[in-house]
Design brief:
mainly alpha, 5 helices, elongated, 2 domains
């Protein structure tokens, strides 16, 4: 997807080439983060693009997408089975829907409950 990088430039015009000065006295625990940023800037300069490897998805992204998919299906009146098909595909639903453990059914129910909770105000935790 689209990526962006925000830089705060002080004391120079951004319409002309600028020099990047880096503080080499990096506080403990920040070295990897700062080196990653420098690698990203170097790649941007060399390729003209913000490369995807510098923007890994947030660990919760896939789960949030699944929860929102389940919520959308629930609000549209879809059956839990149809929501499961949207979540994991028809083959897996055919294989696991009637399983005695009900793991897939439970996953659908949990995703719907989480989605409804987000809709009713739980999303505010993301804003903090």
């Amino acid at each position: 997807g689209p990526r962006s990088l925000q830089l705060n430039v002080k004391g120079a015009s951004v319409t002309e080439p600028v020099a990047l000065f880096v503080d080499t006295a990096i506080p403990e625990g920040q070295a990897e983060h700062k080196l990653r940023l420098l690698r990203c800037l170097r790649a941007l300069r060399e390729t003209g693009e913000l490369l995807p490897e510098f923007f890994p998805p947030h660990p919760y992204t896939k789960r949030a997408a699944t929860v929102l998919l389940a919520l959308d299906g629930y609000l549209a009146g879809m059956s839990h089975r149809d929501i499961a098909i949207a979540m994991v595909g028809e083959e897996r639903v055919a294989r696991e829907w009637s399983d005695a453990s009900e793991n897939l059914r439970d996953a659908v129910r949990r995703a719907i409950v989480r989605g409804v909770a987000l809709m009713k105000g739980g999303y505010r935790t993301f804003l903090r």
